[in-house]
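Q: What would this chain look like folded?
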Amino acid sequence: MQTSAIRLIALVALFIVATDNYRFFSEVTKVFPPTRGNLGFLGSLFIVFVCVLIILFNLVRSRWTLKPTLMAFLLLASVISYFANSFHIIVDDTMIQNVAETNSAESLDLFSIRLILYVVFLGLLPALFVYRARIEYRGFRREQISRLFMLSGALVVMVLVMLPFGKHYSSFFREHKPLRFDTNPTYALYSAGKYLTASAFAGELPLQQIGLDAHQVKESSDRRLVVMVVGEAARADHFAFNGYPRATNPRLAAENIFNFSEMYSCGTSTAVSVPCMFSPFERSAYSDKKAKATENVLDVLTHAGVQVLWRDNNSSSKGVADRLPYENFRDPGSNPVCNGGECRDSGMLSGLQGYIDSKEGDIVIVLHQMGNHGPAYYKRYPTAFARFAPVCRDNELETCRDEEIVNAYDNAILYTDYFLAQIIQLLKNNDERFKTALVYMSDHGESLGEGGLYLHGMPYLIAPDEQKHVAALMWFGSRMRQEIDGNALSHIVDNRFSQDNLFHTLLGLMNVRSSVYVENKDILAEVRS
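A: My prediction, written as C-alpha cells:
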C-alpha cells in the first residue's frame, strides 16, 4: 500500500487518541459530563489531542525516523493503555523510576494474557501496518514544505477548535490539571524526559556527609539493639489496631504494642518513600537528586559508632544502604525460606542471632519486606496464612471480585503480623544483654479498587489516603521500657505523624546526638525519661 507521510501520521495520531485514551476521556467526562453544553468541547478536545500528536510526529519526521517513531509510539501507548485501564496507573516520573528500579520477579507479577492482547491489537498489528506502508517521498525540499504545511495546519486547527470553548479550556488547564496526567502517551513522554534529565545531573553532585559530629550519649554500659522493619504497601486501615474489623494482628495483639494510627508516608511508591523516610529532608523539601547526594540517618548512626546492617527481600534499598553492609534475601541462594521462587520475609531472620553475637557495641538492623507487594498478593504468604477466602489468584485485579482482592491482601497482612512477632521473640531472647526495640513502618499504602484505583504510585497531589496513610508501630523490650514512659506514649500515638519523623526518632532511640538531630521531630523525645 502506497500512502503519503501526511496521511500515515494523521491515521496513527487518530488511532492512538481513539483507542489508547479511554482512561483520559473517561476522567474528562467526570468533570465535563457529555451534556449538551459540553459535547462541543469534548469533540474539540479530541481534535486538539490528535493535532498535538501530529505536531510531535512531524518534529521527528524524516525518511529514516518516521516509521520507527510511529511504531514506537503505538507500542508504548498500547502498554500504557493496559495499565491505565486495568489499574488506573499514571505514568509519571516516579512511576518511570519504579520501572527502572524494579526486578524481573516483580515485573513478571504484572504480566498477563490481557496485556498481551493489548500489545498485539493496539500495538503490534498497527505497527505492522505502519511498517508495511509504502511512503511516497518527493525529495528533500518538497518533504520539508510538506512538514511545515502539516505543522502549521495542525496549529491552525487547534486554535480554531479551541476558540469557541475558551471557558472550558480555561477550566481544563487551570482548575483540573491532574486530567493531563492521563494523556497517553504524551504525559509519559514528558515524565520520561523529566526522569532522564534528573538522572543525568544526579551524579554531578558530590556526596554530602552529614552528622559527622554524631556521638552516643552513654549513661551506662547498656547496649542497644533496634530492628527497623520497612514494610511494603501496608495501609493503616487494614491493621486491626486501627479499628479494622478483621483480626489481622492476632500475634501482635498479645504484645505490648504502641500503634501509630495516623502515620503518613513521604511518597506513594517504594522508590520515593524508602529513601525519603531515611533522609534528613522532609517530604516538602525532598527530591531524589538531593537524597542521592546526601547521607541518611543510617550513615549518621555509623558515624556515631553504631553497627548497621540492611537485609533486603524487596527490590533494593533504593540507595539507602549503598554505604552500609547489605545482604540480599531475594533468592533461594541466600534466603532459606523460599517456595516456587517466592522468598519469604521470615527468611531474613536466618543467621541474625549469629550476626548479633558477632558484633560489639550498639546495633541497628533494617529488614526491608516484600510484605504486601501487589498485584499478586496471594504469592506474599504461605498457605498456612490463607485464613480469608476466597482469594484473587490473578494479577489482573480488575477481573477479581473486591472481596477476593481484600482477602488475599489481608492474608499478607496476617503474615506480616507473624513476621513481626518472630522479630519480637528474637529481641526478647536478647533482652538481658541489650535494650531492645522494634520499629515498623510501611513505605506506602495501597489502593484495592476504591474509586477504580489499584496498587499505588499515584502522584501525591491526587493520591487517595489509601496510598498515603500507612501502618506503623513500635515495641520495646523490658529494659528499654524503663526509659520510655508508656503511659505518656499511649496518649500521643493517635497524633498525626509522618515519615519525616523517622530520621530523628531513630537517632533519639539510639541515644545519638548531632547537629542534624531535631528533638521536637523525635516522636519519643517527650516520653523519654
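The mean pLDDT is 93.
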